[in-house]
Amino acid sequence: MKTAVAAAFASVALLVCGCAGSSRAQDGHSTPAAPSTGTGDALVLRIRTSGGIAGLGGPGSLPDFSLYGDGRAIAGGRQLTEYHLTPQVLQRLVSAASEAGLATPRTADDPRVADAMYKVITFVTGGRPRTTKIIQAGGGGDPAEKFLERLDPATWPRSDLTADPQPYRPARLAALATSVNGAGPAWPFKPLASGARVGTQSCTVLTGADVAKAEQVAAHRTQWRDRGQTFRVTIRPLLPDEPGCTALTR
């Protein structure tokens, strides 16, 4: 069974598979061969929101949507959900990304909009990430805007998936800490101040049994005392292509 599944995903990297029916993930006409989707934890496509008055999308922020070469898609806000697309649907999305011009980096802007928010699309093709920046609700008719509509998992029928959606269970967490005034209980994990820098925050990675424990304690408070300093701490799940803090600076 595992051999058959592996062969199916290998064929995705070589050609576009036919797929019956229609859905928001599948819609469109037949497509030419697309770039290789890769395998496993290799990132294929990522969407994040940036800009605006609040300055969204800075270092350490979670993306809105991530798609991987084995068909996994991870999306959501504070509570991430993991989806597993069929090889056929995965290939159709990759082909549609190519047809939407995402292999060519560009910015679709509108100088009339102040403090604009953008959708930043990273499409990995030929082993290289290409970035397209689309002003949100710009109405400019860029093909990438239409393509974004297909990346809403809420519109995907069950037939697009190999399993039911499930909560994303990270193997690693990043503890992002900012020094603040005040008090708090003792931080029960690795030292915070000595971590790698991610923007203005220090970052330490938690693994093993600390993952479940940190998720539990982070649900109740954000301010902690550690080695004579007080920190505001954000617990951020690391995604499959994010081995550590360095990945959060990109």
Cα shape: globular
Low-confidence stretches: 1-24, 26-36
Strand content: 25-35%
N- and C-termini, Cα separation: 37 Å
Number of strands: 13
CATH class value of the largest domain: Alpha Beta
**Which structural class should the secondary elements be placed in?**
alpha+beta
CA-atom Rg in angstroms:
20 Å
Spatially, the strands of the biggest sheet line up as 5-7-6-1-2-3-4-8
Write the layout of secondary structure elements.
Elements: H1 2-12, E1 43-51, E2 65-68, E3 72-75, E4 81-84, H2 87-99, E5 106-108, E6 117-125, E7 128-135, H3 143-148, E8 166-167, E9 172-180, E10 196-198, E11 201-207, H4 209-218, E12 223-226, E13 229-237
Parallel strand pairs: 5-7
Antiparallel strand pairs: 1-2, 1-6, 2-3, 3-4, 4-8, 6-7, 9-11, 9-13, 10-11, 12-13
Q: Can you walk through the features of this model?
A:
The chain has 250 residues and is α+β, with helices and mostly antiparallel strands. The chain has 2 domains: 2-166, Mago nashi protein (2-Layer Sandwich); 170-249, no CATH class. It is 16% helix and 30% strand. The protein is built from 4 helices and 13 strands. It has helices spanning 2-12, 87-99, 143-148, 209-218; strands at residues 43-51, 65-68, 72-75, 81-84, 106-108, 117-125, 128-135, 166-167, 172-180, 196-198, 201-207, 223-226, 229-237. Strands 5-7-6-1-2-3-4-8 form an 8-stranded mixed sheet, with no helix packed on it. Strands 10-11-9-13-12 form a 5-stranded antiparallel sheet. A hairpin with a 2-residue loop joins β12 and β13 (229-237). α1 (2-12) packs parallel to α2. The longest helix is centred in the middle third of the chain and has 13 residues, at 87-99. It is globular, with a radius of gyration of 20 Å. The two termini are 37 Å apart. The relative contact order is 0.16.
